[in-house]
Amino acid sequence: xxTALLYSEEMKRYDFGPGHPFRGDRHASFxxxxxxxxxxxxxxxxxxxxxxxxxxxxxVHSPAYIEFIKKGEWDPWxxxxxxxxxxxxxxxxxxxxxxxxxxxxxxxxxxxVATGRYKAAVSIGGGMHHARPSRGAGFCIYNDVAICVRNxxxxxxxxxxxxxxTDGHAGDGTCEIFYEDPRVLFISLHQxxxxxxxxxxxxxxxxxxxxxxxxxxxxxxxxxxxxxFLYALEEIFCPLAHxxxxxxxxxxxxxxxxxxxxxxxxxxxxxxxxxxxxxVRETAEAVCDxxxxxxxxxxxxxxVLPYAWLALVCGVSGxxxxxxxxxxxxx
Length: 331
Ligand SMILES: [Zn+2]
Description:
Blueprint (H helix, E strand, L loop, with lengths): L2 E4 L19 H12 L6 E4 L6 H4 L5 H9 L7 H6 L10 H20 L5 E5 L19 H13 L4 E5 L6 H6 L6 E8 L23 E6 L5 H19 L3 E5 L17 H18 L4 E5 L8 H13 L14
Parallel strand pairs: 1-2, 1-3, 3-8, 4-5, 4-7, 5-6, 7-8
The protein binds zinc ion (ZN).
The site of zinc ion has 5 residues, from loops.
C-alpha cells in the first residue's frame, strides 16, 4: 500500500522572513528531492489538504487566540503580541492561512489512516509542537499534532494514541495539552533542556492526575548520535508501545537532530533518520497494524533538511532509498 503525502504549495507562505531560521522554501526543496530520488508515482500518493476551519482549531486553541492570529496585526511592541505570541514567532500577512493548511494536512493525514484508506500518511511541514492553547512560540502557531489527535478522539472515537516526538527540541506544547489525558501516551526524545530551547522536557515531567505516567520525556546530551538514540527508542519507546497498545502511532519531528543543524546540537546522520523511521514502522506493524501518522517540519540547515525528511519518510513507508549525507561526517 502506498503512503499518503499531504502537501500544498500554500505551505510556502509559512515563512518568518529573511534572517529567520524557519523559511517557506523547505517544503518545495523536499518535493524536489523526492522527485529526484523516488519519483512521484512510486510509494506515495500526493494529496492536497484543505485549510482547517475555526471549529477544528478550537479542538485545541482558545477563540481569543485564533481571533488574534486571524487578524494578523502583529506588533512586537504591543502587550497583546507578548501575551499571545513569543518574539521568536513573528507573524506576517498570510501566516494564518498557511498555518491552517498545515493543520488541515495533519487532520487529513489522521483521517486517512483512521478510516483505513492508508496505513501511513505524512504531513509535510507538520509538527508544530511548541504551540499552546493560547500562545504561539518556537516558530509554531497552531499545534497540528494536538489538533490531529483531538480530532481522532472526537470524530473517530480513537481511544489510545501514541505520540512519538523525535524533534531535537522537547515537544512542550503537545506535552502540556495531553498532560492529564491517559488516552495519549506522549514520548519525546530531545536535546537536554538545560542546553536547549524550550527549557522543559525533564524526566520528572511524567503527567498529572489521570495522565500520570503517560508523559515520557527523554533528554539526550548534546552530540548524542544515532546508536544511543536508537537505544532509547528500543529500550523505552518500543516496550511502552507494546504495553500501551495504541490504535495509531503519530510521529513528529524534522531534521533538526542532524549533526550539522544550526540550532540543535544532536548528532543524527541522514542514514540515522532512515533508521528512526524504520523503527517506528516496525513497531507500528507489531502493535497497531502499521497505522502511522507522520509529520516532518523542523530543520535549520537547508542543505540537510530535504535529505533528512526524505530519509524519515522513506523509513516510515518502508521504501528503500539511496541517500548520502550532503555534509561530511565530523571526526
Ligand atoms: Zn525542533
